[in-house]
Give the backbone structure.
Amino acid sequence: MATVLVTGAAGFIGSNVVRYWRREHPGDRVVALDALTYAGVRENVEGLDGVEFVHGSMANTELVEHLLRAYGVDVVVNFAAESHNSLAILRPGDFFATNVMGTQGLLEAVRRVGVGRFHHISTCEVYGDLPLDVDESFTEESPYRPRTPYNAAKAGGDHVVRAYGLTYDVPITITNCSNNYGPFQFPEKVIPLFTTRALAGEPLPLYASTKNRREWLHVEDHAAAIDAVVHHGRVGETYNVGSGHEVDVEGIADAVLGALGLGPQEASQLKTIVPDRPSHDRRYLLDSTKLRSELGWAPRIGWDEGIAATVDWYRTHEEWWRPLLGRAPVVEGAGAVWGR
Ligand code: NAD
């Protein structure tokens, strides 16, 4: 039995992991902390059995220190972040404040109180991008070469975590994960954006570089990877988490439209090319051998199955996503409308 503090718990991955954790570790208690930015949805976690929801910021060291002591927290899993790559182009300051200094505020509380494990969620995007036509992938040893404000802010947060691990003996682990998809993803991100637009019969905005591609992992498989690293990963280590399955921008649109049963003619009418966002990374691909060989993790949900289920979830949960549409800041000004 453990008490787990999950930060950013009302967001997409955080809320999926909270539900996963309660299912897989029913004896554990979860304290779900979230600042409820526009991307945080309180209903995603509030009221779940065994979950205590707290509205507040990870940057508030005193609040976190109080929570760590009051609940006797054993494990912290940090998802809290500004996460929308396109928005970061318009509001970089918010991203550095949250993803770098917010992470530091959280770690400061952890350093003062002490926990059994501090696990930090990061992204493949800190490694920079790869050419489309080479047989290469990023390992945990690859240098950090972020190219956008979001990536750079995440990279800064990772450095803070490692510094606290080495300097103050905070027992840290980090996972750098590829692009996630699944239910409860905010409709600003590409898969829910394409799905909700297609459901409304509205155009799907495809970046001009339609062959740029991402490695897609179902959020349930990400949750299982985090579980494995928190319980069995070596302190101080970083683990890449990826499926190896890459899909380009056009392939995502086709998969979504296909899952909704639209024929080729309707589909081609809905696909609309928009200008690339500045510094649009071409590709990220992770080498996840370390996680697979050391901890026996492997993804279970294939793309075809996962995308069909995800599109179906949005089709049947309009009451969840419809009210969120007006909440997302408009980012078309950055020459960009999708997230990662
Ligand atoms: P999200 O935007 O859906 O959720 C982020 C959550 O953090 C929101 O609920 C927001 O309210 C909360 N938050 C923001 N600032 C906070 C603060 N100061 N204190 C407490 N809560 C705060 O993002 P997501 O897609 O669920 O991503 C979660 C984490 O995973 C992020 O760190 C992101 O960088 C990382 N990640 C995401 C992906 C992906 O494909 N979505 C891939 C790899 C890594």
Notes: The two ends are 36 Å apart (CA to CA). Residues 150 and 315 are 30 Å apart (CA to CA). The chain is about 40% helix and 15% strand. The pocket of nicotinamide-adenine-dinucleotide is lined by residues 7-8, 10-14, 33-37, 39-40, 57-59, 79-81, 83, 98, 102, 121, 123, 154, 177, 179-180, 186, 340 (CB under 6 Å).
